[in-house]
Design goal:
Jelly Rolls; Iron_ascorbate_oxido_reductase; oxidoreductase; IPNS-like_FE2OG_OXY; five-stranded mixed sheet; eight-stranded mixed sheet; 301 residues; metal-binding
């Protein structure tokens, strides 16, 4: 498998006193979103100490016995494992996850005995949210003079964190850690360990993403591709199962409110207008019926 280095962007340029340097940094973000749909960021404002604390808490959480994770209502009863809708092995994901809405992250009742997790995850979610909104505004401003567009569309009530664990898989050659997919949001930020396994589609072939311990990975979601009229790309990606090491990651998903209308930033539009609720319902219907997501092609004009 060919290994790639994602575009690496130093976000300290956004705080430069030199306007040319600031503009160059913003341009690099927009260019990577168009050419790759993925990029890495360093000097992103989230401290290594916070990231390390979040990883430790995540590992402790997943070390909990399965019966407790699955039945005791942890984190808004958000525990999921495998792929209940899978219709064949290629639709199955060898992973477990907690899928937590931002609105629930600070609720003490969701954590049970994991009191230190609440403190760390509340701080972590706030930091990831700040970074996601910063990047989204840069990408919107690049295509639109309506500076409040992202603020009008995206809403904290539908954003969420997903804590992922990919256990060691004894049949790793036959199954995915996470099946090939695109993200059904505006923007995703990923904090991953150094095990590797993330792959993305580039120039019609799969390439492996080389981990970078200093960087967070950012990728464009379906709704940003639709809003940008295909200027920004929501790229198919997957996680390969590992037969020797477990893998951890945490993803932050920037989403619109359910009833926000996703229209194009310019005409003529490639896609019909739709709401996040309509898009989500269609994805769920397709997964239930076919075992996999179809996504944006459903909404082409």
């Amino acid at each position: 498998m060919e290994e790639c280095q994602l575009p690496l962007i130093d976000l300290s340029g956004l705080n430069s006193h030199d306007q040319k340097e600031t503009n160059a940094c913003a341009a690099a973000i927009c260019r990577a979103s168009s050419e790759w749909g993925f990029f890495q960021v360093v000097n992103h404002g989230i401290s290594p100490e916070l990231l390390s604390k979040m990883r430790r808490e995540q590992e402790l959480l997943f070390q909990t016995p399965f019966e407790i994770k699955a039945t005791c209502g942890l984190l808004n009863n958000s525990y999921r494992w495998g792929s209940p809708t899978a219709t064949c092995p290629k639709h199955f994901s060898w992973s477990e996850a907690f899928h937590i809405p931002l609105t629930k992250i600070n609720e003490q009742a969701c954590y049970g005995d994991f009191t230190s997790l609440r403190v760390v995850m509340t701080e972590f979610a706030a930091a990831m949210s700040k970074l996601a909104w910063l990047l989204a505004r840069i990408l919107v401003d690049n295509l639109s003079h309506q500076r409040d567009t992202v603020d009008n569309i995206c809403h904290e009530s539908t954003c969420f964190l997903r804590l992922n664990r990919y256990p060691v898989c004894p049949i790793s050659a036959e199954i995915f850690g996470f099946v090939p997919h695109t993200d059904s949001d505006f923007l995703t930020i990923l904090y991953q360990d150094q095990v590797g396994g993330l792959q993305l589609m580039k120039d019609s072939k799969w390439v492996a993403v080389k981990p970078n311990q200093d960087a967070l990975i950012v990728n464009i979601g379906d709704l940003f591709q639709a809003w940008s009229n295909d200027i920004y790309k929501s790229v198919e990606h997957k996680v390969i199962a590992n037969g020797k090491k477990e893998r951890y990651s945490i993803a932050y998903f920037l989403c619109p409110s359910y009833d926000s209308l996703i229209g194009s930033c310019k005409e003529p539009s490639i896609y019909q207008k739709f709401t996040f609720r309509e898009y989500r319902n269609q994805v769920q219907e397709d997964v239930k019926k076919n075992g996999h997501k179809i996504g944006l092609p459903r909404f082409l004009l």
